[in-house]
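As agreed, record passed on underneath.
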Amino acid sequence: MLSVEYPGYGVYEGESNAKTIIEDAEIVFDFLTQEVGVAPENIYLFGRSIGSGPSTYLAAHREPGMLILMSPYTSIREVVKSIAGALAQYLVAERFRNIDEISKVTCPCFFIHGNKDTLIPDSHTKELFAKCKAVVGLHLSENMTHNAFSMFGDVLKPVLKFIKQLDITSTPAVYKFPKYVTSVPLRKYKKAFTAAPKFEANTSQDKSPIAISKTLTTL
């Protein structure tokens, strides 16, 4: 599993904005495919809450093996509208319009949402589910809220069931990261990723699913 931090959080210096977050998602995906040698279909994208924005965008503009969205939204403005009313939505800039990007996604998609989510109502997931043109699965949990859920019952179990229904199997594999990843300061990771030489993929190498997830945060 490879988790992607938001700029401005933890050790990652910089300003957190939609443009930078999208760029980071693309850089990490391309780093895995072009330099580490992971096949795109063996990358599963997982996005929760705000992370559903960059995950959905990435799935629409790359070709991952699967997109898993937990408590996603149709757009940032629609979330504000759900909480504060129709007029309030125009007080924030529109970002991450998942409702537009989801129709471009071609990989299997699985949606997870809680019926008791008061921050992002489950109606958002239902709209995305209806708009998605790919193979889809849906898990709506009766007692799940935005931040209170069972990792096994609400996430792992339904996701694994969906994967089983798709008859997806995995083959263990070991991927080696370039030395520069561990030889440069953390703040220089992004520059190192973009400046590194291209990786020549070994087509005979075994592949296994590897996940990219945004750090779990709330709006």
Observations:
- The helical segments are 18-36, 52-61, 76-84, 98-101, 123-131, 151-165, 180-183, 189-195.
- Strands lie at 2-4, 43-48, 66-70, 109-114, 136-141, 210-214.
- The longest strand covers residues 43-48.
